[in-house]
Amino acid sequence: MIQVLFFAHLREQVQTEMLELEANPGLANVAAIIELLQQRGDAWASAFSDERSVMMAVNRELADLETPIKDNDEVAFFPPVTGG
Amino acid sequence: MNTISIQQEPFDISAVQEEMRQSNPAIGAVVTFIGQMRDINAGEQVTAMTLEHYPGMTEKALGKILAEADERWDLMGMRVIHRVGELKPMDPIVLVAIASAHRGEAFQACEFVIDYLKTRAPFWKKEQTADGERWVDARDGDKEAEKRWS
Question: How close, in Å, is residue B145 to chain A by CA atoms?
C-alpha cells in the first residue's frame, strides 16, 4: 500500500488527513497519484489545480511530479511551507 | 556537532549561545538568528498562531539543510530549534545558531540555513485574527532569498 498524507490548508480543502492507495504499475510517479486524486471530487480537483500551490514529498524528502513511486512509499502533499 | 529540536516548549536563547560558545576553544564566532512571531501580518492584527509540521520529515529536512551548510562552509557546530503548537506575538519561533573559527562563515551559514528552512522545511502557520483563522501564505521574498544560494 502507498500512504498518502495531507497537511495544512490542503488537508482542510480535501477534508482528508491520510489515505492509502493500492500500488499498481499505473501509479508509477507522483503525477499519476495526483491524477487519481483529482478524480475523487471537486474539492480534490480544485486543490490540485494549480501546480505552484502544491508541494510534494516521497518518503519524507521533497519530490516533484516525476518522482517514481513504489509499494510502501509514503507520499505527502502540502501547501508551500511557511516555517521560521 | 549539529543538533535539531522541534518542540512545543519555549527555548532559552542565552543557554544555547553559552553552550555553543563554550563547546570548543577553537571557536572564534557564534552567530544566532531568532525568528519571532509578530502581532501584524498582511495588514491585519494577529492575536495567536498555530504552527503545524510533518513529524519525521521536519527533522530530516533540517538535517539535510545543516549537512549542506557543513559542506559549503568550515563550521564548528550548528543548532536549530523550532517551536510548534500554539504561539503568541513576541514568542520566539526559531533559533539558528552557528559556530565557526571566524565570523564570515558563521554569518553566511546562518543566513543560508534560515533561507532554506523557510522554503524547504515542512512547517505551516495558521493565524488567528479579528476576522477569524487563516493560513499564512508563502512569501515570494523567501523564494528569492533561497535562489541566492544556488
Answer: 13
Q: Which amino acid is at B112?
A: F
At A45, which helix (H) or strand (E)?
Answer: helix A42-47
- For residue B65, the tally of other CB atoms under 10 A from its CB is 24
Chain B residues with CB-CB distance to A83 below 8 A: 51, 53, 82, 93-94, 117-118, 121-125
pTM here?
0.95
Name the region of A69 (left: φ>0; alpha: ψ -120 to 50; beta: rest).
beta
How many CB atoms are closer than 10 A to CB A37? Answer: 21
pLDDT, residue B67, reads 98
The alpha carbon of residue A25 is apart from the nearest alpha carbon of chain B, in Å, by: 26
CA–chain centroid gap for B127, Å, is 18
- By residue count, chain A amounts to 84
Interacting residues of B25 by C-beta distance below 8 A, sequence separation 6+: none
Name chain A contacts of B117, Cβ cutoff 8 Å: 83-84
Give B136's contacts in chain A (Cβ within 8 Å): 82
**Complex ipTM, two decimals?**
0.94
Nearest-Cα residue of chain B relative to residue A76: B54
pLDDT tens-digit map of B64-109: 999 999 999 999 999 999 999 999 999 999 999 999 999 999 999 9
By Cβ distance, the residue of B56, B64, B118 closest to A83 is: B118
